[in-house]
Each structure stands twice: as C-alpha cells, then as structure tokens.
Amino acid sequence: MDITEISKKLGLADNKPVIRKAVEFRRLSDVKFDSSAIGVE
C-alpha cells in the first residue's frame, strides 16, 4: 500500500503538504534502513 492509498483512506487525499511530508519521511526511513543494513551509520 502506498502513501496515496493510505491518504485516501484517512480522508487526506486533498491535503498535498501532508502527503508530500509523508512521502519524504518514508523515503528517509528507507534510506536509513538500507544504509544501516550494510553497516553505514
């Protein structure tokens, strides 16, 4: 499930700043997880 589907279910589909921040946080957490998996902190 991606961020746009979640935002629709929560009734936030028309709130673009919230969606943009959620996508940014998701991307940053993915980068953090990937870098820690290979031993880079």
Q: In short, what is this structure?
A:
By secondary structure, the chain is mostly helical. The protein contains two helices and no strands.
Q: Would you give an account of this structure?
A:
The protein is mainly alpha-helical and about 40 residues long. The longest helix is centred in the middle third of the chain and has 22 residues, at about 15-35. The radius of gyration is 13 Å and the shape is elongated. It is built from 2 helices and no strands. The termini are far apart. It has one domain (about 5-35).
> Total strand count, please?
0
Order of helices and strands: HH
Give the uncertain stretches in residue-range form.
Answer: none
- Mean pLDDT value: 80
Overview features:
41 residues, 73% helix, elongated
